Each structure stands twice: as C-alpha cells, then as structure tokens.
Amino acid sequence: MSQRTPKGRVVLADDDVLLREGLASLCERVGYAVVGQAGEAETLLALVAEHRPELAVVDIRMPPEHSTEGLKAAATIRERFPATGILVLSAYVEVEDALALLAGGHRIGYLLKSRITDVEEFLETLDRISKGGSVVDPSLVQELVAAQRRDDPLSLLSAREREVLELMAEGRSNAGIGRRLWVTEGTVEKHVRSIMSKLRLPEDTDDHRRVLAVLTFLESR
C-alpha cells in the first residue's frame, strides 16, 4: 500500500478533551500531522510558535473566562504567523466575532461546532483553508441575509443570485457553486457578474477577496 503524502501540520486548541482527541484522530486519518494540542490560549500560542503549523483549529471560547480567548489567540496568530491558516470553531453564530475574524484575510474560516458532525464537509473546510481559501459557516451567511433591511440592495437579487451569493460567501469557487446548483461554470460566472454589478462590488477572481467583499457588504446592513 502506498504511503499518503502529508497534507500539512495542524495544531488543535479546545478545552473539551474528547472533542479535541476526536478532531485529532479525524485529521490524522485523512493525512494531516497533528503536531500539538492545547486546552487554553497560552499553550496554543506556544505550540504555534514552536511548530509553525500550516493550520490551527481553535475554539472561540477557552479558559479561563470562556469568552473570546480563542478569538484573541487567532488574531495573535494571524499577526505573528500569517502563513498559518486558522479555523475558528464556535458553538453559536456570533456575528460580530466572526466578521472581525474574517476581516483578517485569506486562509481563515469560521465554522459552527455542529457542522463537525458532517465529517466530509469538515474535512473539505480544512482542505480549502489549507489551500488558501476562506470559509464561512452557512448559518452565519443566512443570519446576515435575514437581517437585511427591506430596502437593502439585496432585494435587487433574484432567488438564484441569492443562492450564488450565499455559496460565494461560504468560500466556494465558481466551479464548486456550479456543482452544488447543477449548472455550468459559465452560468455561475454570469450570475457572479450580475451580483457584483447589483451590489456595486468590484469583480475579483480571487476567492477569498470575493468572500470578504460580500461579507463587508452584508455587515453594512
């Protein structure tokens, strides 16, 4: 049997030991090398400084206060080690925290812990961040869209364009959106151009900048 090429090194941070060990087992099963685990933010930062992993998976709430320790640690990692991709996990949709995190640029993601139960989707999220993309939990996108004012420019979008917008904000490429909606990539490109025009957003072929542009628009509701 041929050996699997390592996908990259990962550091995991969550004070729930069972969840952390489960994530470690899952990551290693598909080819990631888990080089460290932490139950609080200080240890997480030390592990990242020591190993310089390609990816850090961080719980948003960690000891001692269980407020935003993980989020602050993620911001520190982004500042000190920008090459490390970051996936922040949260038990609930926390809009302001998520938007602050995602404003940090590419190789970053926000995912609800409940989404981890979909193993295939979770692993796809890790791969997308490792490859330079950004990932937004669909629940966050839906909450932002639902909060729009009645006279907001989103009302200009067709039902199909709204579907494309939500998938864009999740970090999917045009090809990925096409597969999800069962349409051609060319059709998706037309929808994207229309969305950019209606929302007065600049066209950009870089996926993570498209995500940030959409989120910036949604944040200004």
Automatic annotation (TrEMBL):
Residues 150-221 form the HTH luxR-type domain. It comes from the Bacteria. The keyword Phosphoprotein applies. Pfam families: GerE, Response_reg. InterPro entries: CheY-like_superfamily, NreC/VraR/RcsB-like_REC, Sig_transdc_resp-reg_C-effctor, Sig_transdc_resp-reg_receiver, Tscrpt_reg_LuxR_C, WalR-like. The keyword Membrane does not apply. Keywords: DNA-binding, Phosphoprotein, Transcription, Transcription regulation. Residues 9-128 form the Response regulatory domain. The modification 4-aspartylphosphate is found at D59. This is Response regulator transcription factor. It comes from Streptomyces polyasparticus.
